[in-house]
Amino acid sequence: MADILSVTGRLISILPKAEGEGANGHWVRQPFVIEMKEGSFVTNVCFDAWGETANVLAAFSVNDVLNVAFRPSSREYNGRWYTSLRAWRIVSAAAEGVDPQPATGAVDPEPTVSHVDTTPKESSYQGGGASEPPADDLPF
């Protein structure tokens, strides 16, 4: 089983929610963007929260510092590859013991990318609802 990755950064945007009906029933996808700084280098990363995890974002505001656990996933469509970062856990960085960013926004926390041990368990998906993330009906 692949390692689960985790990053810490400032929430800079919550993008429009997408919903639809598929073969497995109703699905919800909530994209959001985290900004991470390493010295003077800034990286913005877009994540997708699916199902119940998408509702977690309602508790946060732009400029909150979050810790996001995610799994990368890629798929091929018409000879091109598309990658998404599926967030399965979103929590306040303060709850994770990371010093939150000052309210002025002058200093961002250093980005943290870590590997989490995922010794096989019944199911490592914690997005709520089903035992695995919902399959989407996107063409890629």
In short:
The protein has 1 helix and 7 strands. The chain is mainly beta. Strand 3 and strand 4 form a beta hairpin.
Descriptive overview:
The protein is mainly beta and 140 residues long. It has one helix and seven strands; from the N terminus they run ββββαβββ. A five-stranded mixed barrel has the order 1-3-4-6-5.
Strands in their spatial order, largest beta sheet: 1-3-4-6-5
Unreliable spans are 100-131
**Whole-number average pLDDT?**
77
The end-to-end span amounts to: 23 Å
The number of strands is: 7
Output the radius of gyration: 16 Å
**Largest pleated sheet:** 5 strands, mixed, barrel
Share in β-strands: over 45%
Oligomer: single chain
Secondary-structure element pattern, one letter each:
EEEEHEEE
